[in-house]
């Protein structure tokens, strides 16, 4: 086995999964959790901020430069995968990379729109009173539509993981838990975690979340 996913990346992934599930539940099916919906959104924004920073200064497979490719390459990889002749990737494959980038961008948009919207009953986003009615209305519309897109993309992501696991007998879920994948002899070294870089990423993200929690809703 070879080390691929570092611990910060794995923690990010599973905390993101937990927050996403709770946010969908609290935003759609149980209004009594609306206050915690806002607070979970704050945590999500800090989590995304951490991932963006870690994608710059993290270990090799966590860095965006190691997996971000053009959409054309992602679509080409999908075609080759279903033909059974795709190339093996230790980190994110091109299709997975496309999904990661889309999810991060849409989650950023979802967080931003949530900060300026209101549930029109008890709770307002922390910046709701600071924007015009038109912008708040646009934010609410974006917030509603993007969440539907995110749910569809997450569903596709799960299907992609299942398909990849079946076609290539690769335990992707297990690798995101252990951080290890089967070594085929040509993996690039993951490198070690820079503790100073990690501390700075965590500090910036925590500071942002702390700021949000201090705002009235």
TrEMBL record:
Residues 5-179 form the Cytochrome b561 bacterial/Ni-hydrogenase domain. This is Cytochrome b/b6 domain-containing protein. It is a multi-pass membrane protein. PANTHER family: BLL0597 PROTEIN, NI/FE-HYDROGENASE 1 B-TYPE CYTOCHROME SUBUNIT. Keywords: Cell membrane, Membrane, Transmembrane, Transmembrane helix. Pfam families: Ni_hydr_CYTB (PF01292). Gene3D superfamilies: Transmembrane di-heme cytochromes, Chain C. The chain crosses the membrane at residues 12-29, 36-54, 99-117, 148-168, 196-213. It comes from Neptuniibacter pectenicola. It comes from the Bacteria. Its main location: membrane. It is found in: Cell membrane. InterPro entries: Cyt_b561_bac/Ni-Hgenase, Di-haem_cyt_TM, Hydrogenase_cytochrome.
């Amino acid at each position: 086995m070879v080390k691929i996913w570092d611990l910060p990346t794995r923690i990010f992934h599973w905390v993101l999964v937990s927050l996403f599930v709770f946010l969908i539940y609290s935003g759609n099916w149980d209004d009594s959790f609306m206050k915690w919906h806002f607070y979970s959104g704050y945590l999500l924004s800090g989590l995304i901020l951490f991932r963006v920073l870690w994608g710059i200064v993290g270990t090799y497979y966590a860095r965006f430069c190691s997996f971000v490719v053009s959409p054309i390459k992602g679509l080409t990889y999908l075609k080759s995968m279903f033909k059974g002749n795709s190339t093996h990737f230790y980190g994110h494959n091109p299709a997975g990379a496309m999904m990661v980038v889309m999810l991060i961008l849409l989650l950023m948009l979802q967080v931003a729109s949530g900060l300026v919207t209101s549930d029109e009953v008890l709770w307002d986003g922390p910046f709701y009173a600071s924007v015009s009615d038109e912008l708040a209305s646009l934010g609410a519309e974006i917030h509603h539509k993007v969440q539907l897109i995110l749910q569809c993309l997450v569903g596709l992501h799960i299907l992609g993981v299942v398909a990849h696991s079946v076609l290539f007998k690769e335990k992707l879920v297990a690798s995101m838990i252990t951080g290890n994948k089967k070594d085929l002899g040509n993996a690039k070294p993951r490198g070690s975690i820079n503790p100073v870089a990690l501390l700075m990423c965590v500090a910036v993200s925590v500071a942002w979340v702390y700021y949000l929690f201090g705002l009235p809703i």
